[in-house]
Amino acid sequence: MNKRNKKQRSLHKVEQGIWIVLLSVFLLSSVMKAVNINSFALETRLYLDAYLWDLKSLVSNLWGAFRIDMVGAIGMCVMEMMVALLAIRREYRRVASVGFCVMLTFFVYLTGLNLFFPTIMGSIESCGCFGELIHFSPLASFVKSVVLWVLSIVLVVYSWHERWNVSMLFKDRYLYICIATSVMLPLYSIWFFEALSHTVYIIGFLVLVVILTGNIIVWRVKQMSKE
Predict the structure, then answer these.
(1) How many CA atoms lie within 13 A of 143 on its CB side?
(2) Tens-digit pLDDT profile for residues 93-118
(3) Whether the Cβ atoms of residue 187 and residue 117 lie closer than 8 Å to each other
(4) At 94, which helix (H) or strand (E)?
(5) Contact, 213 vs 84, CB < 8 A?
(6) Domains of the chain: which residue ranges?
(7) Which residues make beta-bridge pairs with 122?
(8) What is d(CA 27, CA 185) in angstroms, rounded to the nearest whole number?
(9) How far apart are CA 196 and CA 214, in angstroms?
């Protein structure tokens, strides 16, 4: 019985460790992309031109000079932070685990194309996964995506017995706090990156990150005290 309990505790620690890793990676990735959303939009355009040309052509035919690269860049930042913030709440972890897995499946596909089936111009040098902070080679980017994808599958398996709680999620104010928080940083970058000096912009960005993070933590602590 003791051996079984020890094994369960060990598995639980492994599961919690994986949650922390994926949550941290997605949060860092979203924040670093949002520091200079215009730069990440250019990176997004490279991938659209190289590997998702049909999608870009379809959008262009439907909406003309629609900036799908910017929308895609903002959408990526928002989705990464949204999934990470949902993972903080135990009752939404099944949704979060599937969110991690779906996004990482797309990343594995895209980085795999870039590594194994590059265009005639060669592979795109950087994936832009962490904005301009960290640059990965095509091989390192693919390996990173595969490792994180495997971890996400483990979480999907661990969380499969839990309830989806989708209806509860849409009624929960936490969802809309997460949406507002996730959108704020990319919008700040769009509005102020070129309008402010570099130092003032970075200070403002860090202050905004601290305020948003603090509000999430305070709100979560209040909720936990009521549970």
Answers:
(1) 5
(2) 899 999 999 999 999 999 999 999 88
(3) no
(4) helix 93-116
(5) no
(6) 2-226
(7) 119
(8) 12
(9) 24
